[in-house]
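Quick one, tokens below:
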């Protein structure tokens, strides 16, 4: 019987990866240089990230853009097909896929993920999203469930998938949301190491991740708030006899001078902001999830223009390295990096920031 486990036992360094390059970056900005999510660009980027020593990449799952002039995320490569192609051309980096569980039956998801693990054994992760966007639910013709009920549905969805991975004989499943007869799935995951991540910042999202996943992906509002969140996760995981690592994301604007970095961030997040698109995502977040308070949505509007609400790290290579050290020190295990233009900005980050992180003991050599 295959045993499904998560990543464990690694030395305490800050794992670094990338986030969202299968779409038009995380920026809700009209900047003409923003990332173009072609297959060739994604392939070349992930190969470069692997060569640079980065650890993982997490894609978006999105079927509908946010409108406005630039329609952010109106174009996204399918995250499962994306992961399959990239697993085939890489050798070390972990490739997550992102699955919105209301739109994907667990029997289908189980086969997809097992197949990915045959392409890249031991390098596959699932970013499990319980569904938050009412406009996409309407597009699929699916009724949006009440917030906490979405996690109850996801819990049963995951239970079915785990049974398909671990049971050799057909089984019946009678639950609240699924009634399956003679369910079976093959192939099984080859490596037995498919990492389970859940994205959520609400109390229900945290509880689901602590009880069922290896990693919780949450929003970094501030270092103090994230330290408190990590403390709650660690305490709850300890009570449950489990280990759960906390991952988050940050927008990186790194330039030779602090003035240059700050002026560029100002241009992206204010001068070039796609205001109608930002209004749309704030409306959806306010209506459909509990990850953000109204105060956060109002106060951090510029963060959505630059990076979908993620934490900004703006400055020189020394500034960026020091902030990454502080993020590691509050207990964050993994940080997904967002750039306006990944291909143009990753080489400078690789050459100027990564060596400093090694010297500071934040990253392992090599």
């Amino acid at each position: 019987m295959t045993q499904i486990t998560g990543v464990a036992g690694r030395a305490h360094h800050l794992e670094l990866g990338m986030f969202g390059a299968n779409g038009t970056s995380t920026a809700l900005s009209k900047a003409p240089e923003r990332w173009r999510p072609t297959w060739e660009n994604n392939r070349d980027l992930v190969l470069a990230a692997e060569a640079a020593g980065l650890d993982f990449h997490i894609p978006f799952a999105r079927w509908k853009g946010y409108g406005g002039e630039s329609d952010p995320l109106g174009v996204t490569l399918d995250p499962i097909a994306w992961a399959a192609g990239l697993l085939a051309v890489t050798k070390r980096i972990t490739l997550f896929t992102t699955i919105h569980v209301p739109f994907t039956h667990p029997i289908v998801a189980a086969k997809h993920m097992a197949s990915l693990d045959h392409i890249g054994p031991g390098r596959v992760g699932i970013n499990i999203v319980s569904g938050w966007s009412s406009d996409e639910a309407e597009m699929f013709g699916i009724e949006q469930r009440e917030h906490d009920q979405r996690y109850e549905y996801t819990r049963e969805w995951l239970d079915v998938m785990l049974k398909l991975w671990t049971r050799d004989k057909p089984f019946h499943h009678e639950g609240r949301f699924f009634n399956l007869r003679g369910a079976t799935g093959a192939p099984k995951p080859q490596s037995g190491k498919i990492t389970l991540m859940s994205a959520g910042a609400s109390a229900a999202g945290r509880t689901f991740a602590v009880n069922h996943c290896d990693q919780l992906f949450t929003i970094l509002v501030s270092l103090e708030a994230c330290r408190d969140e990590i403390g709650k996760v660690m305490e709850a995981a300890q009570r449950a006899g489990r280990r759960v690592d906390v991952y988050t994301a940050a927008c990186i604007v790194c330039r030779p001078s602090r003035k240059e970095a700050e002026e560029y961030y100002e241009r992206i997040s204010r001068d070039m902001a796609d205001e109608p698109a930002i209004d749309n995502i704030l409306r959806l977040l306010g209506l459909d999830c509990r990850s953000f308070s109204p105060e956060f949505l109002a106060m951090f509007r510029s963060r959505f223009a630059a990076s979908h609400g993620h934490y900004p790290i703006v400055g020189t290579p020394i500034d960026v390295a020091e902030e990454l050290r502080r993020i590691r020190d509050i207990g964050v295990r993994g940080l997904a990096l967002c750039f306006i233009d990944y291909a143009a900005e990753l080489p400078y980050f690789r050459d100027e920031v990564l060596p400093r992180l090694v010297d500071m003991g934040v990253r392992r050599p090599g």
